[in-house]
Design a protein that fits this description.
Elements (H helix, E strand, L loop, with lengths): L16 E5 L2 E6 L1 H39 L6 H12 L6 H15 L3 H10 L4 H9 L6 H11 L3 H9 L3 H13 L6 H6 L1
Helix pairs in contact: 1-2, 3-5, 6-7
Protein name: XRE family transcriptional regulator
Length: 192
């Protein structure tokens, strides 16, 4: 009945167990697979509940902050959004470059002292590293060339990271653009 070339085969010695959700059977699979699936799904449920709890806690903290400061309680979502924006990993600018350096140090699994020596061997000094991490000054092209060699990216890639716009900057630009004078059409140019 079972031939090695047959796409459909009977595995009578294999046992399958039911997977249930809230008391209802939703599928069958091998014991090993069932254990992994159930663990993953239950872990996901825990993460969702933790996320909801953290969201609610943040909402309460922001409400308390607005009450203490005498702010408008209807602005709680705006305050939450601002705090969330502050903790996001930057995609552009000097701080994004600092994150790339920190990632590289973690990849190399070296101490701060060893990483400083490593960077110095690529002509990026300790004072320059401090400035980058503190965000005191923008990263210049010379530093960017050294950082490119340190993190294993091209100068152009890092230039895009350094010079790109953040989401808040894009929102400001969009807002300014929407407030500016309407664009001139081709027909209006021809008439004038």
């Amino acid at each position: 009945m079972n031939t090695p070339l047959s796409p459909w085969q009977l595995q009578s010695e294999e046992t399958y167990v039911p997977i249930c959700y809230e008391g209802k059977t939703v599928g069958f699979c091998s014991q090993d697979s069932a254990n992994r699936i159930i663990k993953a799904l239950n872990d996901r449920e825990k993460v969702i509940k933790q996320k909801e709890t953290l969201f609610r806690a943040m909402q309460l903290v922001c409400l308390d902050l607005l009450r203490v400061s005498g702010g408008d309680l209807n602005q709680v979502n705006e305050v939450m959004r601002k705090y969330i924006e502050k903790i996001k990993r930057p995609k552009h600018g000097s701080k994004a470059i600092a994150f790339l350096l920190r990632d590289r140090q973690m990849e190399l699994d070296v101490s701060d002292k060893e990483f400083v020596r490593f960077c110095d061997s690529y002509k990026l000094s300790l004072p320059e590293l401090r400035e980058i991490y503190n965000g005191n000054k923008p990263v210049n092209d010379e530093q960017l060339r050294a950082i490119a060699r340190i993190v294993g990216k091209t100068f152009e890639e890092l230039k895009d990271v350094r010079d790109g716009f953040s989401e808040s900057e894009l929102r400001v630009l969009a807002k300014l653009e929407s407030q500016s004078a309407p664009a001139v059409t081709d027909d209006e140019l021809i008439e004038n």
